[in-house]
Amino acid sequence: MDLFWQDDADPDMLAAFAAAGVAMPMQQHPIYGAVLRRFGREVRHGIWRVAGAPAGLAQVARRSGLTLLSRGPLWLDPGPAASRLRDIAGRALTIATPETPVAGRGLIPIVTPRLQAIWHLRADAAELRAGLRANWRNKLTKAEAMADGLDIRVSARADAGWLYAAEGAQRLARAYRALPPGFAEAWRAESPGSFMLYEARKDGQPIAGMLILRHWPWASYHLSWTGAEGRRYNAHRLLLWRAACDLQDDGYAALDLGDVYSEETPGLADFKAGTGAEIRALGPTLLVLPRLTRRRW
Is residue 210 predicted with pLDDT exceeding 80? Predict the structure, then answer.
């Protein structure tokens, strides 16, 4: 198995991996790479081949002597390929967070694995709804019964400034970290149709908002905010359900709901798990030591 590097992703190869059901987290999608380039990162695409046929893909970013691999590589056959993670290490310090747990020589864990909620979108809306946990489904039904007084909006072009401001204040109050608004706006600039803003308004005023970033065949729940009136209407649940149904209608395979911190935020963890999402352990963040014979970019 040999690793080859190129500047740009191969769309046909990505389509083939998607058709084979390979996961496509945001950090391994070409849109993400294009956004990182806007922020001054050097981005390269690695392809492992066996007898000329692709076996694995990795999108890596580099800046100031540090190489980062997030949520990858992507493997058609993950079993025997896991040890190839060390192929990416060059002269730069390399940090990797693989999508699945991996261990071995030259891979030094430095951060414990995260739990990620992956909502696999089923064949149709009825099956998707049947996959909800009973309590989540009952609350959704109640929210739908109250929704007549709400204006639900979905747009790729609407101004998201109010949501960035509200979520930013929420982030400060709750002391959690997130990507800056500039990241989402750079995503919209790179792929306007992959940026979806969901809003719930009452009497013209926003009471809840949610931003979904699409990266075929997956999408990511990027950020959200709900005010007191939004909580009364359970608007967050309404928006997430609408987003999942829209993605399903458009043929997307999964919605990545993000990290699950059950001890720190048990309510959020229960909310995500209530969708029927798979709670998946990612691999630990690793310091990847180079092989003695180092591959050059």
Answer: yes
- Full DSSP string of 7-37: SS--HHHHHHHHHTT----GGGSHHHHHHHH
pLDDT (mean) for 79-92: 74
Q: Are 208 and 224 in contact (CB under 8 A)?
A: yes
User: What residues does each domain of the chain span?
Assistant: 2-112+282-288, 116-281
Q: What angle do CA 121, 100, 281 make, to 5 degrees?
A: 70
Q: What is the pLDDT of residue 266?
A: 67
Query: Which tokens go with 182?
Result: 């500039």
Q: Tell me yes or no: is domain 116-281 CATH 3.40.630.30.
A: yes
Per-residue pLDDT, 83: 67
pLDDT (tens digit, 9 = 90+) per residue, 120-152? Answer: 997 788 999 999 999 999 999 999 999 998 999
Q: Are strands 285-288 and 107-111 parallel, antiparallel or unpaired?
A: antiparallel
Determine the 3-state secondary structure of 200 from DSSP: strand
Considering only CA atoms, give the Rg of the chain.
20
- 2.30.30, 3.40.630, 3.40.50, 3.30.1370: which CATH number matches 2-112+282-288? 3.40.630
